[in-house]
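> forwarded from #structure-qc
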């Protein structure tokens, strides 16, 4: 997991404070992007800078996961399996039972994140733990670049859940007695 930094003070402040050379001029924060020369890499229109997801985004996520989704982890990993030959090799090396456990663990992680969607510190903690669990899987062929594919697949499955959520509401509104 990345750690972001926020610059405190100006370059002039830093130069004038030569007595405190050991003082760190950046505070680690997992929620705010790096700044370079006082310029942020990304801009945000959100008013709540203490949370990386807008309040509307959090509500959408909660709505998507109102119904149980026991196959979420499996669908995400299956999507990756179908796209990448190197991931297929990793899964075969991992073995059927352990691969199944990994899909359950991913589902549990997503459910935990959703249940604590308003607590970014908790999300960082469980995400870090999940990532650390994958260190030992390098011996089976897990690659760091799988994380991007996992994130993409989670996003796609989340969009599918969101579309399903809207279809149910649309059907209920247009045909409430069917």
């Amino acid at each position: 997991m990345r750690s972001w930094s926020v610059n405190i003070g100006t370059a002039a402040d830093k130069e004038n404070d030569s007595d405190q050379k050991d003082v760190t001029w950046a505070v680690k924060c997992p929620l705010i992007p790096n700044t370079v020369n006082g310029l942020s890499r990304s801009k945000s229109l959100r008013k709540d800078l203490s949370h990386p997801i807008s309040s509307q985004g959090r509500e959408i996520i909660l709505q998507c996961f109102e119904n149980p989704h026991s196959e979420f982890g499996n669908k995400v990993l299956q999507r990756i399996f179908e796209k990448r030959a190197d991931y297929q090799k990793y899964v075969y090396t991992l073995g059927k039972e352990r691969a199944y456990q990994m899909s359950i663990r991913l589902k549990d992680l997503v459910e935990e994140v959703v249940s604590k969607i308003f607590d970014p510190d908790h999300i960082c903690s469980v995400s870090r733990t999940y990532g650390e669990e994958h260190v030992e899987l390098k011996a089976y062929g897990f690659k760091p670049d799988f994380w991007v594919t996992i994130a993409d697949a989670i996003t796609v499955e989340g969009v599918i859940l969101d579309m399903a959520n809207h279809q149910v509401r649309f059907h209920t509104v247009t045909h409430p007695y069917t």
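QC bot note: The CA atoms of residues 64 and 162 lie 5 Å apart. The chain has two domains: 4-40, 55-174.
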